[in-house]
Amino acid sequence: MVRLFKIFLASPGDTSDERKAAEDVIDEINKTKGPRDNYRLELLKWETDTYSAVGEDGQDVINKQIGSDYQIFVGVMWRKFGTPTKRAASGTVEEFQRAYERKSDVHISFYFNSSPFPQDTDLEQAKKVLEFKSQIQDLGVYHKSFESTKDFEQKLRMDLQNYVTDLLKAEIQNEEVSVVSEGSSAKQVIPEIKDSFKDYLNDIQASFSHSKVDNLQLEDIYIAPDLRDLSNGKNASKVKVENLSDLTDAIDAEGVKYAFLGNDLAGKSANTKYLFLKYFELGLYPVLLKGSDFGSNIRPESLQKTVETKIAEQYQVPFELADIDTTKVILLIDDFHKATKAKNRYWPALMKNLESLFQHIIVTGNSLMLIENLNKQDPFKNFNSYSILEFGPKFRYELVNKWNTLGIETRFTDHNEILRKNDAYISHIKAIIGKNYIPSYPFYLLSILQALESGNVQNPNYSIHGFYYEVLINECFSKAIKDRKEISLYYNYLTQFCFYLFEQGVKEVSLEEFDAFHRMYCEKHDLSYRKETILQTFDSARLLYVNNGVFIKEKYVYYFFVAKYIANEIANKEEIKKLVTKMCERVFRDEYASIIMFVTHLSKDNFIINELIKIANSLFPEANVARLQDDINEINQLVESIPEQVLEIVNVDDQRKEELQEEEETERLEKELENEQSNYDHFSLDDDVSTIDFFARITRALKTIDILGQVAKKHWGELDGEQKLNLVNTTYNVGLKTLDIYLQMLQRNSKDIVEHISQIIKEKHFKDKHSLEKGIEEASKNFVFRLCFMSSFGITKRVSNAIGLDRLNNTFNKALEAQPYNSIKLIDLAIKLGYSSLASNIEQIETYRDEMKKNKLSNVVLQNLVIDHMYMFDTDYKTRSRVCNKLGISVQEQLRIDQTSTVKKKK
């Protein structure tokens, strides 16, 4: 017999979204968990369950027709209290009171929307809502707050499912937990996950901790990753990407069969735990196994026993497969590559037998599984195979935001404070990850976040970034080396080996070449270690990989140990100093730039800083520092007036999501090209730097800016004032010299460029060229002016992002005082808008507006720095109005002030 539970939903008129969400939740439960657990929910609402009739008032009609035939009362309120009735302060209150009178046989839940009130809110109504909330709390009534419709939906779903499950448990007590289905020999089982297994499902299984949460759990920080479809092959023209959560929403009657493949730290186990809970809520019977659970006996009857053993471990009341509809069982097998003692020749037979027993199977496995099965029978021939992708900008930001809001009530925290903290952490993560130095998987990201939060740099010679890399490597060693006394040996061995690879100009050596290096190392250090022992240890630590050769998979390992060699020897060896100089001159090559960046992580030797500054100051000797004053007169003459700058009122969180999505696409394109060689990859340390082309010179300048900025930000506490000022001034000047090169080129050739663009326009619109003749030259000049603006704005942001840090504020003030150019003022403002509010900088902005009013290019850069800030941080109405009026920025009031939509910004 199917149990029926009726739910009455009561709420004022401003909760239509929540009422619709309640319908969706109940419909979903009735399609998923309800059939499995033998119950159904029915929602009662006055909109659909009453008809026109006469009573004392409208509420009286509703009361009579709804009656009292319901077991669950759900109330929802936000800012409206409702209309008074003849019997109560409002219709919702009266409905609550009727339910409360029957509280012994009615379950009451009340939900209050805690999102901010819009400006048009009736404050008297809102006050009554708050008073009512306090009143029902005093009555001991269960209530929750929610921040969005989605949040309400999630909480209502969980609460309804938990209540019904508890009620069914109470009814059956110690009776057998099964009911024979009509017309079927299978039984309906009401499953419940064991508390101990729930703890396992929420266990991160890593030594992460958070200062504001006593016990960090998986649900606190889990994000379903994106997946790359492997069905079209590695060289597919268009890679199909799906999200794990979206992909696993649907249950195919034919059977769900997925293989999710990834590296050891790609989060495979976390994904299987997430899927277990997800499928349990979807009304299936998930069973989680490890590949190692399958040994030598892979006969079907043995596999069935293995699965039933896991059911007994995972469910409160064990059940046999014969007791249930097995089409609702879903096997989740983590690390399938460990099955049958990792002997891959048995995998096809194992999978064939599993498929004979179960329709739904999801496995995770090592990304090498596909390679290991080449020319063999494929165990996944009936599966859709996917590769687990690294976290891109979107998920990295989401994870950082989860971390920074854990354990705090966001409603009582300044939103901009959280946004700035997020931005600061993202900046650190970008510096540490670098150009794919470290795989952007959750494990690495979480360890970065923990290192940043603790700020505990154990090695005083390292920056926090260098400390992070060392922590990662120490963890690798600690898992592979039992005798901790030997760690120093392996540290030094890998340092020497990586520098050997660097000198040879290779990333991989044959086993014979490694043997020669090993003998040389042992002879030099008077050691007698077997080569096989060394290789096995490094392979176990995942620092070296052995496969018919010896190579380093992760870039950070190679860069760290090459840089460590340099950091160890730079004070004693003149040839190492010469090497550093050569690499600093050639940072347009990615490898050299990365090694120098790592050297600055691992060493604070003054030679490195002084050499970086000396070489930076030698860049573009033919250029001046762009002041954006009288040096751009010709550019300012290109246009009669500043193009109108428009600020659209947008939600900053939505705007950030849009920008992150754009960044996501850019990063994916970059990764597709990362295996293609750069034009400078063959440029050696002995090649003549004077022969590099214009683009290499620009690349060198931009990378120098990044390195100088990182040095200043990482070592701000150790450097003296003069060193910091020198670093800041040099960073500014490299950027502004680069800008000068570009602007002077445009100024010198502006007439030719305008004529060329005009000709293109004429040819494109040849049919109406006479009517366009008058506006063609103006449009062409506007285009050139826009190129100048984009380069000026871009360099300003590049420099400010590279060196911006609030701890350097005194140094920034001195740099501005020494060079009070428009360009320096704009960089200084961009830096300060990164770590302080618009309101705190408003007087400075107004002063700059007065000073730059007649300088069109400087003015438009100023306007866009302010617009850019207002798209990324919340700004109160008064400040926004004042600054926009002063700067002549148009405000497009196409959206409500309460900000509920996403609109792209105009630049």
Describe the fold and architecture.
The protein folds into five domains: 3-175, Rossmann fold (3-Layer(aba) Sandwich); 188-389, P-loop containing nucleotide triphosphate hydrolases (Rossmann fold), CATH 3.40.50; 394-456; 457-618, no CATH class; 630-892, no CATH class. The chain is built from 36 helices and 19 strands. The protein is globular. It is an alpha/beta fold and 907 residues long. Strand 6 and strand 7 (187-189) form a beta hairpin. The model is unreliable at 49-53, 176-186 and 894-907 (pLDDT under 50). Helix 1 crosses helix 7 (149-172), helix 15 (393-405) crosses helix 16 and helix 16 (415-433) crosses helix 17 (442-454). Strands 9-8-14-10-13-12-11 form a seven-stranded mixed sheet. It has a five-stranded parallel sheet with strand order 2-1-3-4-5, sandwiched between helices. A three-stranded antiparallel sheet has the order 15-17-16. It starts with a strand and ends in a 15-residue tail after the last strand.
Structural class of the secondary elements? alpha/beta
Poorly predicted ranges = 49-53, 176-186, 894-907
Strand element count: 19
**Mean model confidence by pLDDT:** 85
Instruction: Estimate the strand proportion.
Output: 5-15%
Backbone shape: globular
- Residue share in helix: 40-55%
Strand order of the largest sheet: 9-8-14-10-13-12-11
Can you summarize the main beta sheet?
7 strands, mixed
Number of helices: 36
Radius of gyration: 33 Å
* Total domain count: 5
User: Termini distance?
Assistant: 64 Å
